[in-house]
Amino acid sequence: MSSAAPTAPDAVPDQAVLAVDRPSRRLRPARLLTAVHRRRADVTVVLLFLALAGWLTHGLWPDPAARVLALNPEDQALYEWFLAVDSRALLGDFDLLTGRLNAPDGVNLMTNTTVIALGVLLAPVTLSFGAPVTFALLAMANLAGTSIAWYLLFTRVLHARRVAAALGAALCGFGPGMVSQTNSHLHMTAQWLVPVIVWLVVRMLWAADPAGTADGPDRRRVVSSAVGLAAAVTAQVFVGEEVLFLCAVTLLVMAVTYAVVDRNLARRALPGFAGGMMLAAGLALVVLAWPLWFQFAGPQGVSDGMFSPHYFSADLRSWWTVSPLSIAGGDGAARLTTGPAEYNTFLGLPLLLVAAACALWLGRRPLVVACVVGTLVTGALSLGPQVVVDGERTAVPGPYALLSGLPVVDGALPMRFALAVLPLIATLLVLAVDRALRGPGLARRLVPAAVGVALLPLLPTPLPTAERPPLPEFVTGGHWRQCVEPGGVLVPVPLATPKQPWPMRWATAADAAFGMPEGFFIGPYGRGGTAAMGTYAQPTSALLAEVGRRGGQPVIGDEQRRQAAEDAEFWGASCVALADGTPHADSLRGTLEQLYGPATRIADAWTWLV
């Protein structure tokens, strides 16, 4: 016992220890308050980021299960199903091939952007409150978390003033591309590990530089940085591989540029740094070898990308146009991209001019040059294989043409390279504002004001939301168990498709306790086993989809009944269900009764045991 306070001779030892501990415990809240007061500026920035993220996503919060992001509801239904499937890890289901969709073949969770790490981490939330709540929480947390992580990097690694760091971090987390991707692309907005990866790379470089200490390279810090980098990279693979890919490409470009500009540092640190990077890569591969094999060569895996780089190319004009999701943007700008979830460029002319002026004012510092080159390279790659200007495809080839067709690379969308520009320009702004605030004269007021004015038009507006139809009591009340056992296959009518994934909400509401045929996912159903969205529709599925679109009563004969029985057997289905309120429900019911016989009423659905 280290305390010098006297203890009564007849005191019991346990009581004496408790007597000493009580004041310490009473002091802990005081210590916490003292720490918060000491860091009140940082706490204020964090709270502002959280408030801004909550404001942008507030349309979901009145009732997440009944609200949807109006600009991309299909992907929201998909990601909610992903989160429901991920949460099953808490129930002991760790298989990367799930049969809860696309029965009987299943879905490869590594091939799809299933945000496994986030889904498993928040599984208690999903199982307690439902996947829509988890989705809304992540939509908000990814924006705030990314901003906070960059703020910590700018203040702790660049040692920037808090005002400068806050401005840069706000652009990183709430820039046009990030806000746009929040429209249901959780794997793209979960970027809070990127600053950690950058910090570990920088830490390794410092430790590998023999000029940093009197004793030469700090091998212990090189090793610890490598271990930490391997862990961060591994985690990011299970959060979002495309973000990791963009981060790796950007860091590679910056590292090469930095080495060219500061050759002395490159000569000093290269041996230790290269050794640390190889150690990090080796450790990560030990963990990731099997999941990556499963993704590209495992069951239902694909090794190619399914999105055309020509279609998903950034329009050159979009770079100096303001996003429709910003306060100064207009709806007319939407024609310059593929959809509201891909406003990845749209930085506006004022910010581009101010960023360029800041880069010139900062001079030829290695970090500045690396950021400028990184911005130019990733920005150019975003233009795709052919440059598009104001909606017109030109004959001018883009730098991406040099990468098109390469393994892994063709799985990335060119226009998403623009997301890497946000932290690069943000770093330039942070360096410029920090330098201005540390010096006297006109620049001390002019530079922060110019940066603030350039960022103001990009202030995002709340994401549009809308109500969505309530789920049938058949699902929410658990009545589905009367016709299919947990783990069995339920066939909703019509079946889910990539364009109409709404029946997947049934499985989501049931925590993916039952499987479904077909659906919205990426699988090897393209020509020659290449990647495709969704799968082939079985004849009965196609028949029911047509009735669901147009109504009417098709002629059903013995051939259709035989095919319906074969399809049900192929799916491994136990039950077919048609909920009240389904478009052309009467026509669908009549068709199903001709195919499978009389229906059984369960809650607000008609069911057929097959």
UniProtKB/TrEMBL annotation:
Keywords: Membrane, Transmembrane, Transmembrane helix. The keyword Cell membrane does not apply. The chain crosses the membrane at residues 41-61, 133-153, 190-208, 243-261, 273-293, 343-362, 367-388, 413-433, 445-463. It comes from the Bacteria. The keyword Transmembrane applies. Coiled coil: none annotated. This is 4-amino-4-deoxy-L-arabinose transferase. It comes from Micromonospora reichwaldensis.
